[in-house]
Each structure stands twice: as C-alpha cells, then as structure tokens.
Please model this.
Amino acid sequence: HVQLVESGGGLVQPGGSLRLSCAASGFTFSSYWMYWARQAPGKGFEWVSSISNGGCTYYADSVKGRFTISKDNAKNTLYLQMNSLKTEDTAVYYCATSIWGQGTQVTVS
Model:
C-alpha cells in the first residue's frame, strides 16, 4: 500500500543542522512531485518545499537558502537538509504527495 515514513527529526541548537528522510513505498516514486510541509505548535500547516518529478526545486521564503530538498529515486527516498536552524523552525515536519506521512518532530532550542 502507499506509504510515507519520515525520520531524522530531533532536538538541535539554533544554528545547527538536521537531515530529514522520507521513505516512500507503494507507488512509482520517481513519477511524482514530492513536498515537505510543517506545523508549528498552535499554528496551521505551512508549505516548506517541493521537488518536481524532474528534479526542479521550490522553497518557501522562510527557508530559502537554508534548506535543501532532494530525492534519491533508486532508494525511493525524499530528503530535507536543514541548515542554520532557527527556533521558529520548530515544528512537526511532514512529507507528502497524494498522501501524508506521520510526521517527525524537529525542535530547535
């Protein structure tokens, strides 16, 4: 069945880095646009980044220059490299396509 499983979240100090991963299964990963979104405590969902099936990348202004989205089609895995993290990046991060993963918590403190 179609599934997305995020990993790589955790606690990091401001200025630090984390790399999130999203393992996809049950669909032709290379054919789909993939997305990262986040939900900070008490706030709504915020789009973070997208990558097209052709590898074109897009970023929210709030993360541009700090985050990098990528994917490995051979491994059916989506990544989000997050550098220069700020306290306001604290959120649950989700990967998504036509479905959503369960999310992974990122805390910057």
The CA atoms of residues 51 and 57 lie 4 Å apart.
